[in-house]
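stage 2 :: seqdesign
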């Protein structure tokens, strides 16, 4: 039997799963759109120069891409481990199903053997019944013959006495 793979789950992994779920959501698109719009609005208002805003955005987007790649990879690793665990569970279930099928086959064979034995017993009982019936008929005939002989013996005895 294969050893069941154990999935280690760390707090950072929970965070990675939450972040990857959030990044793929409509809220994430909204937040990113607002941030980019704010950056360009700050440039248009003349608060910061275009080059400094572009430099900050470039740095933030690069860092975000690096961290997102790491979080996504952690999520993929966790999902792969989960799938291995599910595969192991399916293998165990298949083994159980195979064992149950073998038990069912054995029970079916036993039932068939019992049916064959019952048929043999019924045939044997039918033979015994027939033999007993023949013996009974033979005894009845003997009793009838004995009665006849007794009746004849009485008649002869009466004839001799007369």
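stage 2 :: out
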């Amino acid at each position: 039997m294969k050893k069941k793979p154990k999935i280690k789950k760390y707090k950072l992994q929970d965070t990675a799963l939450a972040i990857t779920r959030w990044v793929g959501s409509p809220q994430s698109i909204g937040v990113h759109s607002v941030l980019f719009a704010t950056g360009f609005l700050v440039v248009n208002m003349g608060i910061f120069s275009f080059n400094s805003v572009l430099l900050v955005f470039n740095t933030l987007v690069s860092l975000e891409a690096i961290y997102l790649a790491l979080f996504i990879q952690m999520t993929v690793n966790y999902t792969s481990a989960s799938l291995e665990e599910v595969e192991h569970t399916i293998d165990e279930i298949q083994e159980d199903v195979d064992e149950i099928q073998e038990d069912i086959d054995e029970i079916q064979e036993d039932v068939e053997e019992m049916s064959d034995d019952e048929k043999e017993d019924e045939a044997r009982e039918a033979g015994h019944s027939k033999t007993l019936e023949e013996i009974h008929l033979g005894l009845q005939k003997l009793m009838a013959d004995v009665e006849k002989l007794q009746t004849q013996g009485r008649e002869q005895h009466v004839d001799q006495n007369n």
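stage 3 :: structure notes
- Residues 11-161 form one domain.
- The radius of gyration is 49 Å.
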